[in-house]
Design goal:
TIM Barrel, five-stranded antiparallel beta sheet, 15 strands, single chain, eight-stranded parallel β-barrel, M1 Pyruvate Kinase, Domain 3, 33% helix, alpha/beta, 337 residues, 11 helices
């Protein structure tokens, strides 16, 4: 059976909508804890459990941790960045984590908001960097920031204090899985497992999010410590040219299958359905091939969190995955296609 995951958000915050999503085939949901916590989400989680019980589903509740992800600070209002604009990152401009400034070098590319916006560093002046926008957009506060120089690493804690507080509450709220972002090695997952065990959450599975090429290259060290793997194509796609991403996804799939490690594919599986009641042909093909490649689960994010058609998105995700399973049950395999 394929796990079908939605993501919590304002578009599906009531138990009635979630019940419809369960009836459409959803088996669990992802709760993004980058900007909130389990305590603050108590009413939402209760609605989730109520909807699951009414649907006769024993649900999976996955918490996506804050983890060692770099984010810009708060902005007073959205900032429109146009191609060619000169912008300041740091003191006097867009607030960025202090640890990023010393490793911003002239000529480096920096991407914001999961790669939607791209800037090139012109000059580093110590407390700020002068950059030129090469791919524009509207930037709001607390969006991700990534330095694309492959020779640069920024040391961050595996679990923030915010994360540790949520780990302490995981068992109480019925959490079944913890999604650890930006995993680099097995040692990091050992720290996560120790924290879970110390807080009465031994039963919680660890989902290692593969979001960098370093992680993809280091799978042999990561896989023994992960219960499942998340092929997180959003940030992973920021770490390479986009046309290279499908091959890397395939490589991760093959490695997981060789080690008998379940994996979940996520990001933009039905992105068009945030505003359309019907997906594109490319999107359903993407889901089909993810399942025939051996995925144990598929997940949508914004499609159910903020999209206009959360129930329909789950229905298309479920039915397409079921179609792939039926094709394989006839004796087909993806390698023969």
């Amino acid at each position: 059976m394929i796990s079908i995951y939605g993501t919590f958000g304002p578009a599906c915050a009531d138990s009635g909508t979630m019940e419809q999503m369960f009836h459409a085939g959803m088996t669990g949901m992802r709760l993004n804890l980058s900007h909130t916590g389990l305590e603050q989400s108590a009413a939402l989680i209760q609605a989730f459990h109520t909807a699951a019980a009414a649907s006769g589903v024993r649900p999976e509740l996955l918490i996506d941790m804050q983890g060692p992800e770099l984010r810009i600070g708060a902005l007073a209002e959205p900032l429109t960045l146009n191609i060619g604009d000169t912008v300041i990152l740091g003191e006097g401009g867009i607030p960025v984590p202090a640890e990023t400034l010393p490793v911003m070098y002239a000529g480096d590319e920096v991407v914001l908001d999961d790669g939607k916006i791209s800037v090139i560093v012109d000059e580093n002046r110590g407390d700020h960097a002068v950059v030129t926008v090469q791919r524009g957009g509207v930037l709001t506060g607390r969006k991700s920031i990534k330095l694309k120089n492959p020779n640069v690493t920024v040391d961050m804690p595996v679990l923030t204090e915010h994360d540790l507080n949520n780990v302490r509450l995981a068992a109480q709220y019925g959490v079944t899985g913890l999604m650890q972002p930006f995993v680099h090695n097995g040692r990091e997952l050992q720290q996560v497992r120790a924290a879970l065990n110390e807080n009465g959450a031994e039963q919680v599975k660890i989902y290692a999010k593969i979001e960098t090429m370093d992680a993809a290259r280091n799978l042999e060290d990561i896989l023994p410590w992960a219960d499942e793997v998340i092929i997180a194509r959003g940030d992973l796609g920021n770490d390479m040219e986009l046309w290279q991403l499908p091959a890397v996804q395939k490589d991760i799939s093959v490695a997981c299958k060789a080690q008998g490690k379940p994996f979940v594919v996520v990001t933009q599986m039905l992105a068009s359905m945030e505003t359309s009641p019907v997906p594109t042909r490319a999107e359903v093909s993407d889901i089909f091939h993810a399942v025939t490649d051996g995925a144990a689960g598929v997940m949508v994010t914004g499609e159910t969190a903020v999209g206009q058609y959360p129930v329909e998105a789950i229905r298309y995700l479920t039915n397409t995955a079921a179609s792939a399973m039926q094709w394989m049950e006839k004796g087909n395999s993806h390698d023969q296609s």
